Amino acid sequence: MLFPKKVKHRKWQTQRMSERRLARPDTRGTTVAFGLMGLKALSHARMTSNQIEAARKVLTRATAKTGKLWIRIFPDRPVTAKPAEVGMGSGKGDPKHYVFEVRPGRVLFEIDGVAEDVARAHLRQAGMKLPVKTSIVTRH
Predict the structure, then answer these.
(1) N or C: lower Cβ tally within 10 Å for the chain?
(2) What is the pLDDT of residues 15-54, one digit of tens each?
(3) pLDDT higher than threshold 90 for residue 107
(4) Host H or E run for residue 3
(5) Would you say 135 and 122 are in contact if contact means Cβ atoms under 8 Å apart?
(6) Sign of the CA dihedral with 120 first, then 123, 124, and 125 last
(7) CATH topology of domain 20-80+92-138
């Protein structure tokens, strides 16, 4: 699982999941920069480190020994939660896991050194593991 080694602030303030703010296309990380093909997000969501890991496992099977894989996102946003059946008050809960806020247009994974049909099949499978709608993009 991915999570930061060290963070300056253990807990972040909660940002609202407003449709208008998150539906705006991302401005950074929108092109395939390293590999030949990539998996691009078409919707928004908070992606957990477990979901990123599940997609990574699918793609590493495709790359085997010849290919190369780039993960273009990293979960650095802490999500806190209070234990079950605990009353209101007495502060904010402890960090439970880390997420990455994906916005439309962000390239999530890139792959290279694999046949195009194999890469497309595995990128499609990896997209099914994620909570966002995705499309397969190639380098221009």
Answers:
(1) C
(2) 777 777 777 888 899 999 999 999 999 999 999 999 999 9
(3) yes
(4) none
(5) no
(6) positive
(7) Aldehyde Oxidoreductase; domain 3 (3.90.1170)
